[in-house]
Design goal:
The chain is an alpha+beta fold. It is built from 2 helices and 5 strands; from the N terminus they run βααββββ.
């Protein structure tokens, strides 16, 4: 199985990693590593995330206040958002049309 990020989801991850890296050297890399760990877990078990709606799931990161919002596709996963827990819920919904 493979995965791909919605362009804005990738931007969210990189922007958050830059912020963390600026505050504490090495923390940005830790965020990216945690997202990588979760994506690998989800590739092995796509149903591990909590159901958001009929097509989407989310998985909360262990160490950071973010969730990986994703859809299962025939060939893998489509990462819709790296959503901060304090941001407006479902701000990323329009991205599902971009698949």
């Amino acid at each position: 199985m493979t995965y791909r990020f919605h362009p804005e989801a990738e931007n969210e991850l990189l922007a958050a990693a830059r912020r963390y890296q600026f505050e504490v050297p090495g923390l940005g890399r830790s965020l990216i590593d945690e997202v990588d760990r979760v994506v690998q877990l989800l590739l092995d078990n796509p149903a591990a995330g909590a159901q958001v709606d009929a097509n989407l799931r989310h998985f909360v990161l262990r160490r950071f206040p973010f969730s990986v919002v994703y859809a299962e596709t025939p060939d893998g996963l489509y990462i819709v958002a790296i959503a901060h827990g304090s941001r407006e819920p479902a701000y990323w919904q329009y991205r599902v049309q971009d698949r």
